[in-house]
Specification:
277 residues, mainly alpha, DNA polymerase, domain 1, hpI Integrase, Chain A, 2 domains, three-stranded antiparallel β-sheet, 3 strands, 4% strand, globular
Length: 277
């Protein structure tokens, strides 16, 4: 069933990382079902899903975000079962997701000084390629998957722009870049010896794997991650005079409310205020 479910997700246009997550989470549900009832699942039942949700919350002590990720996979599984004729009813929906209060604080907690010190460490100890990569994440705001998927033709240093062809939802967008990105990429291209269509080549004829970028950040910082560099870009751009809509476009946010989060105070600032009470 999982293989057919995976094919269904592919045809539905789901991103590769979403498919992997859904397959994993459905597999966890099937395992729970078999261990609980002593038989394989043949049909989704609403009562079973609610029992599973309770198990995740009260036994596994998982956070609401993790629980909702698993329930979202089951929502897609339910749609697949109905579409394939294996089931006639939709029994699990978004109404079964746990309600989560939106975070008030800004998701960004990095200063420009800390980011630039990190970039310098990467340059000195890891070379121009990795320096160009982390600079693109911090000062162009690309998602790590977008940066890893860049071809050399996507970067126009003369035109001062990067074309993201594989953005979230397969949307294409143009990101405008400044001197920090241009200089870092130019230095890297001057040192680049491997002939590849990828800006950041990985193994074989593939682009760099995102896990390599995670390891890079872990090697040179116990705080900075690729996603935090993207957060930094958004908050830094707003501080430097970008409008909400300009940041939303640069970062590829489909919802302006995502961008507005970066106008909120940081958690550290909120803690300082709380200490004054």
């Amino acid at each position: 069933m999982l293989k057919n479910f995976e094919d269904y997700l592919l045809e539905d246009g789901k991103a590769a990382n979403t498919i992997r997550s859904y397959i994993l989470n459905v597999g966890l549900y099937l395992k729970w079902y078999e261990e609980t009832f002593g038989t394989e699942m043949t049909e989704l039942l609403h009562g079973n899903v609610l029992d599973y949700r309770s198990y995740l919350q009260n036994v596994k002590k998982q956070k609401a975000v993790s629980v909702n990720a698993k329930l979202s996979a089951l929502i897609s599984l339910n749609a697949f079962l109905v579409a394939s004729g294996r089931q006639t009813e939709i029994v699990v929906s978004k109404a079964d997701l746990l309600r989560i209060q939106a975070a008030y604080t800004s998701p960004s907690d990095l200063t420009e000084k800390a980011v630039d010190a990190f970039r310098q460490t990467v340059l000195l100890e890891s070379g121009t390629r990795n320096h160009a990569l982390v600079t693109i994440l911090a000062y162009a705001g690309l998602r790590v998957s977008e940066a890893c998927s860049l071809s050399t033709e996507d970067v126009d240093l003369v035109g001062r722009q990067i074309t993201v062809n594989k953005g979230k939802g397969n949307k294409e967008r143009v990101v405008f870049i400044g001197d920090k990105v241009i200089n870092a990429v130019r230095e890297y291209l001057a040192d680049m010896t491997r002939d590849s269509r990828w800006l950041f080549p990985g193994r074989g004829d593939n682009g760099l794997d995102r896990s390599s970028v995670n390891r890079l950040c872990n090697d040179y910082s116990d705080k900075i991650t690729p996603h935090k560099l993207r957060h930094f870009f958004c908050s830094n751009a707003l501080e430097k005079g970008y409008s909400f809509h300009e940041v939303a476009h640069q970062a590829g946010h489909s919802n302006i409310h995502t961008t507005l989060r970066y106008t909120n105070p940081t958690s550290e600032a909120m803690k300082e205020k709380a200490n004054k009470l």
